[in-house]
Specification:
64% helix; mainly alpha
Amino acid sequence: MGSFSIWHWIVVLVVVLLLFGRNKISDLMGDVAQGIKAFKKGMAEDEKPAEAKSEPVKTIDAAPATPPKTETEQRTEGVRS
């Protein structure tokens, strides 16, 4: 009972063929093959180094922003002037 004989596997194969049919199994295997090819293509694209861009990188050099003045600072500023 520990292992299956060749006859067991033949019966299982016949039942699977009757349930799914030969066309569905071949379509399924074709879809699996296309999926594997797409996966390999995606992995190959990830391994390629990034192409250098022709435009230089733009940076913005800015001084730190000053915090907005409170109402009391605005009032006293008007008085001082």
